[in-house]
C-alpha cells in the first residue's frame, strides 16, 4: 500500500502584490483587513498597514493562523517598524443602522484616515470593493498572500480582542473575554438568562428574537 503523498507546504504571505501594485500606481500601498464581522456583540474593527519592505517583522501571517500571544508580539513589531499603521472601528449602533457590510467599510475608511502617510492604493482582503479614500485592489484570501494584509489582520484582531476584554469588565457574565462576542455555548446561555446588553447587535437574528420574545 502506497503512503499518501505529503501535503504541499503552505505558502506564506509575501510583498509581491504590494510591489506590483506600487509600481502600477506610483505610490505607497497599504494592506487592509477587518475583524469582527460575524460576532453577536461588539464593534467591527479594521486596520491599515504600510509596511517597510526593508524592515519587515519576521513571522507575519494571517491572524487566524497565529496564537494570541504571537499576534500580540507581532502587533508590537508591526507598529514599531511599519511606515504607517491605523486602526478604525464601527460601533454596534453603526452596524445596526448601516448593516455589517457598510459598517465594515466605514471602519476601513477610518483605519486608512488614521495612517500618518496617505496611500495611493489599498490591497483589501476579500472580493468586495469597498469605497475607500484611495484606489482599491481586492484579494481573495489576501491575509494568506499579502504581508500588508496579514499585518492589518493582526492589528485589527488584537485591537478588537483587547476592547472585548474591556467589555467583559463592563458587562460581566457574558464571557466576552473568552469568545469575543462570537456565538459560543456560554454566550448563548448568558443571553437566555440575562438578555442582551448594550453592546449586542440588535439586528442580529438571535438577538432580535430575544428582544421580540
TrEMBL record:
GO terms for cellular component: cytoplasm; ribonuclease H2 complex. A divalent metal cation binds at residues 33-34, 125. Manganese or magnesium. Binds 1 divalent metal ion per monomer in the absence of substrate. May bind a second metal ion after substrate binding. One of its GO terms (biological process) is DNA replication, removal of RNA primer. One of its GO terms (molecular function) is manganese ion binding. Its cofactor is Mg(2+); Mn(2+). InterPro entries: RNase_HII, RNase_HII/HIII, RNase_HII/HIII_dom, RNaseH-like_sf, RNaseH_sf. Its EC number is 3.1.26.4. Its main location: cytoplasm. Keywords: Cytoplasm, Endonuclease, Hydrolase, Manganese, Metal-binding, Nuclease. The keyword Metal-binding applies. It catalyses: Endonucleolytic cleavage to 5'-phosphomonoester. PROSITE patterns: RNASE_H_2 (PS51975). Residues 27-213 form the RNase H type-2 domain. The keyword Cell division does not apply. It holds the Pfam family RNase_HII. It comes from the Bacteria. Signal peptide: none annotated. NCBIfam families: PRK00015.1-3. Belongs to the RNase HII family. HAMAP family: RNase_HII_B. Endonuclease that specifically degrades the RNA of RNA-DNA hybrids. This is Ribonuclease HII. It comes from Brevundimonas subvibrioides (strain ATCC 15264 / DSM 4735 / LMG 14903 / NBRC 16000 / CB 81).
Amino acid at each position: 500500500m502506497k503512503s499518501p503523498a505529503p501535503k504541499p507546504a503552505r505558502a506564506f504571505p509575501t510583498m509581491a502584490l504590494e510591489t506590483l501594485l506600487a509600481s502600477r500606481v506610483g505610490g505607497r500601498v497599504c494592506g487592509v483587513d477587518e475583524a469582527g464581522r460575524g460576532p453577536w456583540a461588539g464593534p467591527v474593527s479594521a486596520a491599515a498597514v504600510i509596511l517597510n519592505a526593508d524592515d519587515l517583522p519576521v513571522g507575519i501571517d494571517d491572524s487566524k493562523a497565529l496564537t494570541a500571544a504571537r499576534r500580540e508580539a507581532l502587533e508590537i513589531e508591526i507598529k514599531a517598524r511599519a511606515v504607517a499603521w491605523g486602526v478604525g472601528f464601527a460601533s454596534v449602533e453603526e452596524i445596526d443602522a448601516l448593516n455589517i457590510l457598510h459598517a465594515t467599510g466605514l471602519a476601513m475608511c477610518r483605519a486608512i484616515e488614521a495612517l500618518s502617510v496617505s496611500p495611493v492604493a489599498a490591497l483589501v482582503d476579500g472580493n468586495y470593493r469597498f469605497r475607500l479614500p484611495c484606489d482599491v485592489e481586492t484579494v481573495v484570501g489576501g491575509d494568506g498572500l499579502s504581508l500588508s494584509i496579514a499585518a492589518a489582520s493582526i492589528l485589527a484582531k488584537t485591537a478588537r480582542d483587547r476592547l472585548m476584554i474591556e467589555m467583559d469588565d463592563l458587562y460581566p457574565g457574558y464571557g466576552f473575554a473568552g469568545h469575543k462576542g462570537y456565538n459560543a455555548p456560554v454566550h448563548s446561555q448568558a443571553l437566555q438568562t440575562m438578555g442582551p446588553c448594550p453592546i449586542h447587535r440588535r439586528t442580529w437574528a438571535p438577538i432580535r428574537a430575544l428582544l421580540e420574545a
